[in-house]
Amino acid sequence: xxxxQFPKNPIYIHQNPEAALKNFDDDGREKRTGTWVxxxxxxxxxxxxxxxxxxxxxxxxxxxxxxxxxxVAFSMITYFTATLLADCYRAPDPVTGKRNYTYMDVVKAxxxxxxxxxxxxxxxxxxxxxxxxxxxxxxxxxVAVKRSNCFHKNGHDANCNPxxxxxxxxxxxxxxxxxxxxxxxxxxxxxxxxxVMSFAYATIGIGLSIARVVGGGHERTTLTxxxxxxxxxxxxxxxxAFQALGDIAFAYSYSMVLVEIQDTLRSNPPENKEMxxxxxxxxxxxxLFYVLCGCVGYAAFGNDAPGNFLTGFGFYEPFWLIDFANxxxxxxxxxxYQVFCQPFYGFxxxxxxxxxxxSKFITTxxxxxxxxxxxxxxxxxxxxxxxxxxILTTVIAMIFPFFNDFLGxxxxxxxxxxxxxxxxxxxxARTKLPRFSSTWIWLKILxxxxxxxxxxxxxxxxxxxAQDVKTYKPFKS
Length: 477
Description:
single chain, 3-stranded antiparallel β-sheet, two-stranded antiparallel sheet, 5 strands, 67% helix, AA_transpt_TM
């Protein structure tokens, strides 16, 4: 086992200039090989997540008019701002400018000042929140497999409430291993598998909902959603509608990793063009599934739609298909966890290496030869800190194992700053858009409107979390 330290100069000068040109990009880093296909897989992995499972519930709160309209509006806003953000990867020119490797780097290049710190707080705080949310969701899906088999064996009225905690530990153990993947560029295979899984369980959920509707399961639905005085009180109606907005916002939260995804693309064709193509494919594909899952799920369950229609317990039979769908969810979230964590891992490790450049504990790589897998670079700091991170997020998930409210809060906190505010502000700065021009006014109106939506969604989710904490009773082992 050999050891070496990271070079302080990131630009590696090869002895053979022609070989260096072939193996390295214009910034001296290892040549990127990603395409719009792999970027689309990353986006689908990041976007189609646990949020899709709560859309039937969200539509039940908003109804047939506002529900689909909000879904379509969020998808259009997300795609529009994603195209603005794609042009900011390089600066000052979107094709030939200097690369920016992270969202914070992009904000620093275009805006600078305190906005960089605000971006870091918003981005990395939400990445931590997503880690916790995915741990909760994956464990719920694992528990659902056990519950589904219990209901099949003992009847739908049986007391089938296994504990989530052992499954959270299993999920964490898997993440401890996968978290040692060095960086985002090594995740393509994991994202493709996860994207396939997301299609699988979303399709199963849609198919089961259609079967329920066709089979005569016509539940009560309304144009305005849950009815005051019948399904909910007036206060509950307001807070649930607010929370539904947060759930839908979470379903479209991927801007926090968009720059990191774009940094995996090869430079020809230009990264911004390929990223816009990937965003269109990713968001249009997921939007189609979202509308189907939300609308068909609402039609199947009506105003009593469960928070998670595959684990809620919305479906009981065929139990083996429910089991398969929940296994797909768990596998997908294993990959999605890494897609969201890797940018945060990279940020912390980069900051520490700059803070303590002489520390061998932080900078030294141990070269280990693995059977059938070539060489692996083991870094003790990476091993210890990433392990501690997974353990910490798992412990928090155990303390607050609440699905809908937690997703709504994350969505509310991330949607405005990362999906709307920064892309718009950077576009204005990059194009030197005149103040009070018609375009400037409309972009500002869009930004402020999304801020209001995020605030009311946060209010609804915080109220829901407070109620959950008061009434929570852990499952029995």
